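Q: Hi! New to this. If I give you a protein sequence and the SMILES for flavin mononucleotide, can you show me the bound structure?
A: Yes, paste them in.
Q: Okay, here:
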Amino acid sequence: MKGILYYFSGTGNTKWVADRFKEEFGLNNIDLKLINIESLEEINMKGYDFLIIGSSVYGKMQPKIVDNFLHRLPITKKSIRSIVYSTQGASSSAAISVIAKELEKKGFRVMIQSSMKMPNNFYFASGKKPSINEQKEMLKNAEIKVKNLTSCFLENRELKEKVLFPRILLGKISARTFRKVLPKLSRSITAAEECTKCGLCLRNCPKNNITFENGHAIFHSKCMLCLRCIHICPKNAIRYKGKKISQTQKETINCLSLSK
Ligand SMILES: Cc1cc2nc3c(=O)[nH]c(=O)nc-3n(C[C@H](O)[C@H](O)[C@H](O)COP(=O)(O)O)c2cc1C
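A: Thanks. Here is the predicted structure of the protein with flavin mononucleotide bound:
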């Protein structure tokens, strides 16, 4: 058996969970290929027996990049078994249900849908800053969850977290609003004087939205607010609304394969 996991991860949480799935399937001698959807040219399901989709949550729903991926995903006639997971700051999200529905429309058979509480990378806009201990606890719980989900899947048992219709509706409205205000929110990102123009943010921005002009980092209008630039900056020089942000993603950001 061979599986493929497509993910989007701005600051490492979703990739961290993907790595745990890879480990867990590996322990069962099952190969799981992980693919980042950021710069994906072709979606090829040929030769894979199962599919996993992992997404972060922005404004209560999956980011647009995941929607675009789902639209491009080819239809299957083979009822390929699938797992959908999300990572978010809250305990759960309606995004899993929406992603699962999209997969089912394409002929996939969703066996597992699960949302995992992970450190909130946007705590400075909403919620509260996760302490180191809270972060460790969240990662431990997510790891246990991945183990359980993997055994359920391998035993061919369905496990779909219920999401009530009003929550889905609210999520869709919230995501629409978020996408509308996104250009305004993303204008809140600037580089402070500490910026050494090392180019790490520029090389790793999923939207190629950053350039250096006349000795300054310029953030253009394609930003999706994934916050990678803020959390990876070696000088912590990237500000949100002029404020210095505590880089809380240190536990997970290193699992992204960053261009150095
Ligand atoms: C722009 C933005 C919006 C977010 N909105 C939500 C939200 O509505 N609900 C939530 O629980 N978490 C929200 N979060 C937190 C992230 O979903 C969470 O930290 C996620 O695990 C990040 O995954 P990543 O590190 O793979 O990018 C948001 C994060 C960002 C950057």
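A: The radius of gyration is 18 Å. Let me know if you'd like me to explain how to read the tokens.
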